[in-house]
Amino acid sequence: MTTLIKQATIISPSSSWHNKQADLLIEDGIIKEISTEVKASVDHTIEEKDLHVSIGWFDLRANYGEPGEEHKETIHTGLKAAQAGGFTGVGILPNTTQPADKATTIDFIKNRPVKSTVERYPYGALSEHLKGKDLAEMADMSSKGAIGFTDDKNYVNTSLISRGMLYAKTFNHFVSVFPSNNYLSNGHVHEGIVSTKMGLKGIPVLAETMEIEKYISLAAYHDAPIHFSTISTAKSVELIREAKKKGLNITCDVAAHQLYFTDEATKSYDANFKVNPPFRSKNDIDGLIQGLKDGTIDAICSDHQPHDIESKRLEFEYASFGIIGQETAFGALYKVLKSHLSLEKIIELITENPRQILRLDIPKIAEGEKANLTLFSPSTTWRFEEKHIQSLSKNTPFIGEELTGKVIDIIV
Questions:
Q1: What single string gives the DSSP state of each residue in 313-360?
Q2: Which residues does the annotation mark as catalytic?
Q3: What is the pLDDT of residues 322-345, one digit of tens each?
Q4: Phi and psi at residue 18, in whole multiples of 5°?
Q5: How many domains does the chain have?
Q6: Which domain does 338 fall in, by range?
Q7: What number of CA atoms fall less than 13 Å from residue 270's CA on the CB side?
């Protein structure tokens, strides 16, 4: 199988072709030739307006439901959504009815027969059954390919996190935490003027920042790495920035949709705007963008969380938290960030940086290398409609939104 990519602008700082237009010839999965013009008989040609190519995008966190919640998402449909979103690799979270807390489940997720070229990287659960009481079989899961350990958005007591950080450190892994205080986060939307007007209990900024302060202290005490997932407040950025200045081994990410919507969107009482962490204020988004600009925030993820219609078509306070996000991630984040960051920097946040956090090899765009590529048009504006959804679930507030930056294809 031979594929010719015609006149694409290559975005890859490690390549001699960075920011230059070229033809790329892919033969049996290998980049055979890169030149100003490739002359060859091929099976397939890709030629699009404003065509760009980068190394394959990587999504740090996605929930796929399987095993146990296949009515929300299967590995097959989840990977279809990832491909539609331009991702060639996905970190799959363990938060399912049958959680990935054993080596056998990690093996199942990695090797489940699915027709997809998107690469799977499962996280192992930090605690048994995601109960937050006893450590799961971390070493066994690591031996089967677990990329890190997390209980996702389930509450974990501080003692268990502390022991987990030390244990993960012994085999060069990290613990990922969702910073949210269990006692302060039992609301529905961001605590502020909007929550007051809506008559809904709010989730204060403090619920996130006090947990970040606690885990920063643990990282310093143990000299162990920790990753903060889906931060949402300007104050969180300030705390992590100062911790990094002290040399602590801390990384963090933000979900694409957190950069796009504010708490004003929740005034519609549409449960598709109910996410955790909640959509925050404009000031918080400004702080997040500044954190991306100065390198405090390391990566952007989709935080893809599918739910069936019965979980969302409810009164706001009873609906489940979370939205699907892989298909809309790039269009949303590029629309927001294109006036603040260079295209090169934006691509870095969804390619190299996520892989560096996970200590994975970074693909290269060079002759003789295995193809791991995302093709996209950054200038294309498009309206996201239900017909674009590849996920099994439809819980998204982006239907009808005009986005900027469209995925064309992936080649792995």
A1: SS-GGGSPP----TTTHHHHHHHHHTTTS-HHHHHHHTTHHHHHHHTP
A2: 303
A3: 999 999 999 999 999 999 999 999
A4: -55, 130
A5: 1
A6: 56-361
A7: 13
